[in-house]
Amino acid sequence: MRLRTTFIGAGLVAALALTGCTGGAAPSPQPEAGAALTIAKPDGAIATESNNPWVGDSSANKLGYKNVIFEPLAMVNLVGENETTPWLAEKVEWNDDYTQLTVTPRTGVTWSDGEEFTADDIVFSFNLIRNTPALDTGNLQLTDVVKDGENVVLTFAESKFVKQAQVLHIPMVPEHVWADIADPTTETNPEPVGTGPYTLDSFSSQSVTLQARDDYWGGELAVPTLYYVSYNDNTALTTALAKGDADWAQAFIPNVQSAFVDKDPEHNKFWAANVMAPDVLFLNHQQKPFNDLAFRQAVNIVIDRAAHTEIAREKAGPELSSVTGLPTPVGEQYIAPEYQGEELAMDVEAAREILTDAGYTWAKDALIDPDGEPVSFTLEVPQGWNDYVTGISLIADQVTKTLGADAKVNTPDADTWWANKRSGNFDAIMHWTDSGTTPYDLYSDTMDGRWLLTGENVDYNFGRYDNPRATELLNTYATAATDEERTAALEEIQKVFVEDVPVIPVGTHPVLGEYNTRNYVGWPSEEDQYATADPVQVTVPLILTKLTPAE
After folding, report:
1. pTM over 0.85
2. Do the domain assignments include residue 13?
3. Is residue 6 part of a domain?
4. d(Cα 163, Cα 539) in Å, to the nearest integer?
5. Which of 4, 155, 165, 438 is 20 to 30 A (C-alpha) from 531?
6. pLDDT (tens digit, 9 = 90+) per residue, 125-155?
7. Per UniProt, which keywords does this protein have (predicted)?
8. Is 269 in contact with 523 (CB distance < 8 Å)?
9. Distances from the Cα of 424 to the Cαs of 20, 291, 411, 441, 506, in angstroms?
10. Can you tell me the distance from the alpha carbon of 452 to that of 475, in angstroms, rounded to the nearest whole number?
């Protein structure tokens, strides 16, 4: 039976208005019945095949095709109404404090090898995580997984209120296959078996082919074949999208209107889905100059965020305006009363007054710190990340001109930058935060001391911001049993964020998606926000079941 789910429109303000000039455009080709979809990545050759859904650098994860083979219990929408759509589960139900989840498996689901999907597969998949710490990347803290009649009951050591999506998005794997695998962390899984709508047909270093199942539990699929193609870089990917050689991608494309949309304005679509994840400057709190609150405060109010949105992000998403760092309108409901209407704004005079009061001086135009030393720092992002390079270049120029600090820009290769950010070997870097259906990820990623417990290398809180009270409040928010407790904790968390400037919020970090409607319609969009348009997200099967042939 085909799954049917009703979605409620969010009525959000448009993240990006797209208007294409049709003058001079070549006639578009007619829709092709049963056309394949080519999904593009700019990662270069993928030399080694691995279809392991648990391993982050497997080819199935890198290209994203794991999501059409292995499916989750439910899908949590990061846009729209943040609704949860049951998937391999017919029903998911949390207890009041979110420490226990009861799941009712969907009937009539079969694995791609014909075996029946059952509650035992759910129990096995979660026990695989529970018994293999390396797979528990979401720190689920499962304490028990049991069958209760037709249901499965998952119990956790602490509330999963802020990690509902991490739990529900876990891929289910077949017990009858994976029970015989000795080490799930190294298994390449050459013949993957899943419940998903497509099966693996062929693999090469340039592309992967998947074919639609004719026995998929979710019903008949409009798209018969998927090609996952890895282009050498963003330039090659953009060219492929513009020519129609690729159909679907998630990439930052400079001048996306002229480079992609205007090539076929009737069919080429770009949507930047606004989610609760900003781009921020992570600041090194261990050394000058960002170990000084006054300097952090001053830099925060000389950044021209309108210019960042216009020039660096090319209007891909709204300007970041709330002092809380929360993108709006998606995060509006979570902004504390104290900060409702309080917007980020440039105020050079106030910034220089803050510095003067803190003992800074100027030698001609150069800023001198209270120790008598010239103020300098370097902003870093990887070479080739065009939007980020432009963004930090704008900030460096603004800080130099308004405050007199010697702000430099460095663009190392991605591997060097990645190592530097984890080890804290930087002055400041531009980076995103995770997104969720609550503000937790934004504030945990930037302020949570628990990230620092891993040792020399960390996976967030890169600037080593150390505030035990912030960590305590974040734990309270994550584990509270009532909405009242969560609200009180969040209000104080935002106060710390605004007053102590652990990071500097710069811009929104929308989830980008490019696609065309020449052969298929029903895509997610600003008008129908049932999912993001990113082809490497867990919600891809939902999108593929909603696509229908274009007329």
Report:
1. no
2. no
3. no
4. 17
5. 155
6. 999 999 998 888 778 899 999 999 999 999 9
7. Signal
8. yes
9. 44, 13, 16, 20, 20
10. 15
